[in-house]
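Q: Predict the bound structure with 2-phosphoglycolic acid.
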Amino acid sequence: MRKKVIAGNWKMNKTASEAKAFFDELLSDINVTDKEVVICPTFTSLSAAVEKCSGSHVGIGAQNVHYEKSGAYTGEVTCEMLTELGVKYVIIGHSERRMYFAETNGSVNKKVSAALNAGLTPIMCIGESLAERERGEMERVVGSEITEGLSGIEPTDKLIIAYEPIWAIGTGVTATDEQAQEACAFIRATIRGIWGDTADKVRILYGGSVKPANIKTLMASNDIDGALVGGASLKADFAQLVNYDK
Ligand code: PGA
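A: Predicted complex:
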């Protein structure tokens, strides 16, 4: 049985004091044990978030990391800098990072590997654009994001994948339950092709305009093991998403 993961990606939102206020208001409502709850604030709020959530069941993640252990990489942060703070997860290869910061399957691969070596749980994001979907290329794009992203990495149930069709991110357009399940089943089959039965233990999340109105049926799909939530994780809505089955 794969434990569901409900993860919030705050993107470039909330100062550290705003992050603290969020946890003060919502921590008791999102502190559940039947699911893994993760919040990914900005780097500047990580410390405050870890402190606020210590003793709770909410884990804290970063939104990016560098793969080198140290060096002349102005503006970047290492895995060790995150683990020392008490950060447990890291989002890698979000489509916004691929789009605006030139991340590639190659850099994603190095980051996933570095994160696993450091004991962080990577949340590796993949997903096709609208044009790619319309050309019938979802499987080709997502397939190569997986095979190149996981190249040379030993099978591990620590990996979390987030399937986020780019056309559904921040647009209000959610993939239908069938589209999301079909893609996540394809993703699991692709992982099985390279990692064998470990594929049954990898959690695959859906992301893209997840909200209280659509989460329940998405989570009922066989191959969907949780959600990566952007906009709705910034508000009180997030507690409703975590408690979608209550
Ligand atoms: P959204 O973002 O929920 O606002 O669509 C999801 C994401 O980018 O992770």
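A: The longest strand covers residues 121-126.
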